[in-house]
TrEMBL record:
GO molecular function: hydrolase activity
Pfam families: Metallophos
Residue stretches making up the Calcineurin-like phosphoesterase domain: 40-216
Protein name: 3',5'-cyclic AMP phosphodiesterase CpdA
Superkingdom of the organism of origin: Bacteria
Length: 272
């Protein structure tokens, strides 16, 4: 395991998310004090854009999977989520992109983004899971939903499906929602879907919503008491100066620490 000094050196701007939704910004030193009693740890990355012209997309994928593997060796992960825009428009890139993602050291789940331009049926057959699906891991539920179609249009998630799954899992301790395109107009490429925003506030066990899409965003925004988190990007031709991934560490008391690895330095930490 990394020493306290190593952890502090590699992290900045963390957040602690408490039960009830209050968010505390932490310094690296403060964050180091919460590295105890973790019951679930996962990583979220998005926007690899495999196949985008004039980018070193193979290297981007290799760097991400390599850095997640190194992180996992010192901080064991339970799973990863690749939150959309795995490829850049052409479906033939899915095969080599998946081959790279298969190098991840733990099981991973995927969502469909606007540059993943394949039909829902093709996506379902390729990955062996529907574009909208749920997973239960250690008393926590993941709801993973598409926000686009074969044309690459910006869409709201299927709210009927989302509502049914939230009802089905309303007795679970924690629900984490993963959708590629943000549904609040926080940035120029986001949507505005009031019904989704209202739904997220109706279930107290929704602990966080995770977005990709906005490559320049790597922070935490709020829908009422629900944190909405971004993870910058690990590929593509634009965005934050670094390419990284987000880590979430759920603790036994229900709070969780979250931060960005940049790609091997921790930044933008938050705790809930």
């Amino acid at each position: 395991m990394p020493t306290r000094r190593e952890f502090i050196r590699h992290i900045s701007s963390a957040s602690l998310v408490m039960l009830g939704g209050s968010v505390l910004k932490l310094t690296p030193t403060q964050a180091a004090g919460f590295k105890k009693d973790i019951v679930l740890r996962f990583a979220v990355a998005s926007d690899g854009h495999y196949g985008e012209k004039n980018t070193d997309y193979v290297s981007f994928f290799e760097t991400m999977t390599g850095n997640v593997t190194k992180f996992h060796q010192q901080n064991p992960l339970d799973f990863c989520v690749i939150n959309g825009d795995i490829i850049h428009d052409e479906k033939d890139f899915l095969v080599p992109a998946k081959a790279q993602l298969d190098k991840l050291p733990v099981k991973y789940y995927v969502t469909k983004g606007n540059h993943d331009k394949v039909s829902d049926d093709y996506w379902n057959a390729f990955w062996g899971i529907p574009v909208n699906h749920d997973v239960t891991i250690k008393e926590s539920v993941l709801l993973l939903a598409t926000t686009s179609n074969e044309k690459g249009e910006y869409l709201s998630p299927n709210l009927d499906w989302m509502k049914a799954k939230l009802e089905e899992h309303k007795q679970q301790k924690n629900i984490f929602v993963f959708i590629h395109i943000p549904q609040a107009k926080w940035a120029k490429f986001s949507l505005e879907t009031p019904a989704f925003l209202e739904m997220m506030q109706q279930y107290k066990n929704i602990r966080g919503v995770f977005h990709g899409h906005e490559h320049e965003e790597d922070g935490v925004k709020m829908i009422g008491a629900v944190p909405c988190m971004f993870d910058s990007h690990f590929g593509g031709s634009w965005g934050t100066a670094y390419k990284g991934f987000r880590v979430v560490e759920l603790m036994r008391d229900g709070s969780y620490l979250t931060y960005i690895m940049n790609p091997t330095k921790k930044i933008n930490q938050a705790s809930f």
